[in-house]
TrEMBL record:
This is non-reducing end alpha-L-arabinofuranosidase. Its EC number is 3.2.1.55. PANTHER family: ALPHA-L-ARABINOFURANOSIDASE 1, NON-REDUCING END ALPHA-L-ARABINOFURANOSIDASE. It is an enzyme of class 3 (hydrolase). Coiled coil: none annotated. SMART domains: Alpha-L-AF_C. The keyword Repressor does not apply. It catalyses: Hydrolysis of terminal non-reducing alpha-L-arabinofuranoside residues in alpha-L-arabinosides. It is found in: Secreted, Extracellular space, Extracellular matrix. Belongs to the glycosyl hydrolase 51 family. Its main location: secreted. GO terms for molecular function: alpha-L-arabinofuranosidase activity.
Length: 685
């Protein structure tokens, strides 16, 4: 039987390496005999994992190692995490011109009873488009309106999820030369099922007037719509129509179920708002932070032309910073550096953009008496946000103006905020940068085999100088499907490699985070949702098994197997915040089609420090490697936790084919953990 050692002893662990290797050879021989004769396991392969749990061989991993990356893609924010139910609330989705597109708004009534158009008559300077509704019928006379009146309706983002007993705040601006008598309500998708209705009567609305209405649902329908109707002849103008659930997270505007799924991951950081969304296909459509702050009615919105949909920018610069704070995560702001996919600002002319970013930093970090900090305070957050990281651009390293522009931003930011860590777009894992940086960005999207093999990509990366920020990683293409077990296993193997190289890697985040099931611009994603449902893909559940790694202690481990290319393992110690117990966690990915009999041998522990109870085994696997989760079976591929009955420093375990297994062994007993399911993991926040 041929075998090959995969040595993961860290570079600063030379003192224990010789002993590890001697023990490895001896114990592996014992292991093979024991597995074949004593355990009775019908395993195709055998392997040995040596774990050195001594303090001398251990290394603390970064507190920031694993986080999340939010990009406005797949309607992740608009129609997703941001709970606004109205799509195209300002009638601006055709751009700030005339006539404008009003989609998905639609007309109630026919051409003989109502005429709907747009015009540039809004009271808001930065979004001038307003909706003009001319009612041709009346409640009396020869031309009677149909029952309920005529007008317009908005179905939201592929249907609004309206739930019985819940309240929704409707805000809109209206103007008319005559008195108005409006019926505003929530109905089913065809307008027949009435869920909530309020009549708005006003005698003097010749000037733009803000109307606020609280609607309480008397029924449930995940495909509801908002209707604005009138049965009074005349002309009515509408603008800036918003409908928000009253039960968003802390009232901050985040959809509770989706926010909860993020919180459950315990992310150390959140990178935002993109991605290509930051760059834009053209600079005129890039994300500009100043246009996303202040009252929501005054935000102009913009076309995300890379992913080809309009955003009203209710989820703006302030909200992203608030999201990070609510998640107890560090914000990482990615800003445009004067470069899009198709045009660039010459370095000679980039200084106005530099000042724009300095203003954005003052908005986040400045005192409430500063120019931009006072605007943040007026929005409800007098204290500064904890912004420590910024990324200059996204995937722009090969652009002709990048280095010149980068240096302008770098110098100005470091002069004003020397503590801020700056992330370059240029990869320094194999070649040194030709410009200063605190971190460098690294992206990987590939097939499953390649992603798994990249677990050792950072083995030879420099330990001095800028650290790696793997801000986007995922299996992509046929192997990914809409989120397969195969993809999750490859990514888990890659992240084990990240743990082992966490002296060269400071951060890592999966991408993309969200996908609305009605708008798959990119597959696969961590979380899939509709207006009323959500589920985590196997890649989402895989990340749950790494959320305790932030700030944990990495132990030296060596794996020997006769199929070493398909196995990878790591060992850490971590403290459970719930029961305050300390655990030794061993994670193993079996990326092969064979069952593996694994012997785990642990050395370096204090005497009797490994308890015989309270240990658990968590496994992520399924009957088919291409299995996916779905709304019908949302946890088909999700972690299953069981108790480990026999615990010792020498353990024999079985790894299923194509599986990710995590063992948590109790080190210092204070209380006993109970086993959990995927539901328990998800709700643990």
């Amino acid at each position: 039987m041929s075998s090959r050692n995969i040595e993961w002893c860290e570079k600063d662990m030379d003192s224990s390496r010789s002993l590890c290797c001697i023990l490895l050879l001896v114990l592996f021989g014992i292991s093979v005999q024991y597995q074949c004769s004593a355990s009775g396991i019908d395993a195709n392969e055998t392997a040995l994992l040596l774990v050195n749990a001594s303090e001398a061989s251990a290394r603390k991993m970064p507190d920031t190692l694993f986080g999340i990356f939010f990009e406005e893609i797949n309607h992740a924010g608009a129609g997703g995490l941001w709970a606004e139910l109205i799509s195209n609330r300002g009638f601006e989705s055709g751009g700030h011109n005339f006539p404008s597109s009003i989609e998905p708004w639609s007309i109630i009534g026919d051409e003989s009873s109502v005429i709907v158009s747009t015009e540039l008559s809004s009271c808001f300077d930065r979004n001038k488009v307003a909706l003009r509704v001319q009612v041709l019928c009346d409640s009396k006379g020869a031309k009677l309106c149909p029952d309920g009146g005529v007008g317009v309706y908005n179905p939201g983002f592929w249907g609004m999820n309206i739930e019985q007993g819940k309240r929704y705040k409707l805000v809109f601006y209206v103007r008319s030369q005559e008195s108005i008598n409006l019926s505003v309500g929530l109905t089913g998708s065809n307008g027949l099922k009435k869920l909530a209705t309020v009549v708005v009567v006003a005698a003097n609305v010749s000037n733009w007037t803000k109307v606020e209405v609280l609607l309480e649902a008397e029924g449930t329908d995940p495909n509801s719509r908002l209707e604005l109707r009138s049965a009074t002849k005349g002309v009515i103008w509408f603008d800036q129509v918003s409908l928000m659930p009253m039960d968003t997270y802390k009232g901050h505007g985040f959809r509770k179920d989706l926010f909860g799924m993020l919180k459950a991951l315990k992310p150390a950081f959140i990178r935002f708002p993109g991605g290509c969304f930051v760059e834009g296909g053209w600079l005129r459509n890039a994300f500009r932070w100043k246009e996303t702050i202040g009252p929501w009615e005054e935000r102009p919105g913009h076309l995300g032309d890379v992913w080809n949909y309009w955003t009203d920018d209710g989820l703006g610069h302030f909200e992203f910073l608030q999201l990070a704070e609510d998640l107890d995560a560090l914000p990482i702001w990615v800003f445009n550096n004067g470069i899009s996919h198709n045009d660039q600002v010459d370095t000679f002319h980039v200084l106005p953009l530099v000042q724009e970013i300095l203003d954005g930093l003052e908005f986040a970090r400045g005192g409430s008496d500063s120019k931009w900090g006072s605007i943040r305070a007026a929005m409800g957050h007098p204290e500064p946000f904890d912004l420590r990281y910024v990324a200059i651009g996204n995937e722009d390293c090969d652009k002709t103006q990048y280095r010149g522009n980068y240096l302008k931003f770098y110098s100005a930011i470091k002069e004003a905020y020397p503590d801020i860590k700056i992330i370059s777009n240029c990869d320094a894992s194999a070649k040194a940068l030709d410009h200063p940086a605190d971190l460098y960005d690294f992206h990987i999207y590939d097939n499953a085999s390649t992603v798994f093999s990249l677990a050792n990509h950072f083995d030879d990366a420099p330990r001095n100088g800028p650290k790696a920020f793997i801000s986007e990683y995922a299996v992509h293409g046929n192997d990914a499907g809409k989120g397969s077990l195969l993809a999750a296993l490859a990514e888990a193997g890659f992240l084990i490699g990240v743990e082992k190289n966490s002296d060269a890697v400071e951060m890592a985040s999966y991408a993309p985070l969200f996908a609305n099931n009605n708008d798959w611009m990119w597959k696969a994603d961590a979380i899939v949702f509709t207006s009323s449902q959500a589920y985590g893909t196997p890649s989402y559940w895989m990340q749950h098994l790494f959320k305790e790694s932030n700030g944990a202690t990495l132990l030296s481990s060596t794996l020997q197997a006769n199929s070493s290319d398909s196995l990878i393992a790591s060992a850490i110690t971590w403290r459970n915040e719930i029961d305050d117990n300390e655990y030794l966690r061993i994670k193993v990915v079996n990326f092969g089609s064979s069952t593996v009999a694994l012997k785990i041998s642990i050395s370096g522990l204090e005497q009797n420090s490994l308890q015989s109870f309270g240990a658990t085994k968590t496994t992520l696997t399924s009957t088919n490697v291409m299995d996916e989760n779905s709304f019908e079976d949302p946890k088909k591929v999700s972690p299953v936790e069981t108790l480990v009955k026999q615990v010792s420093e020498n353990m024999d375990v079985v790894l299923s084919p194509y599986s990710f297994t995590s063992f948590d062994l109790l080190r210092k007993s204070i209380s006993i953990r109970t086993t959990t399911t995927a539901s328990g993991l998800e709700s643990s926040f």
